[in-house]
Input
Amino acid sequence: MSETSFDTRALLRLMAWLSPAFPIGGFAWSGGLERAVADGLVKTADDLRGWLETVLAHGSLWNDAVLFSEAWRQAGNEAALHDVSALGLALAGSAERFNETLSLGKAFATAAAAWPHPVLERLPGDLPFPVAVGAVAAGHGVPLSQALAAYLHAAVSQAVSAGIRLSVAGQAQGVAILAALEGRVEEVSRRAAQAGLDDLGTSAVQAEIAALRHETQHSRLFRS
Output
């Protein structure tokens, strides 16, 4: 494959958008993982790996990947972007999950304005995180498969970081989890790139319950 300055810039932008330093506040959320740890569902690094693998293939990250894919394909269609955004927010299974994806989506769209593009004008004011990233990635010419894989890898990395802060894994174990989940991230990215809205749906019941129970958790580090 030949390399061009355009491809390099697209890669650099993707790396910036999904960097932990990108100002969207992702570090403040755990997606229910904190409650899962408090309830004893996730106690070890192996538990954390299993939890993330399930959420990737059957939980909220699968839905995120499908919404991301649809937003990427509809980046030039303002009405469709509004529809998929409304659907994505409606699929949030708890108040915290709703606030998480909404706050990250709005913050991402605001920060991404550093790279001006007409796609930003087509986005609604309220939108879920995967829709924001998918549409912006498409607008800047980032291929869907690479953008999806990077998005899911960043989500897993954030969850591993949360697990480290919750003391269920150490730094070396966290890196090992990321290495072990590469194949799963690749597989889910490939499936989601071919999926449509009819493929939305989750079966990670314990993860959804943990997200709900976190709302009443007394002492916590994270907002979800």
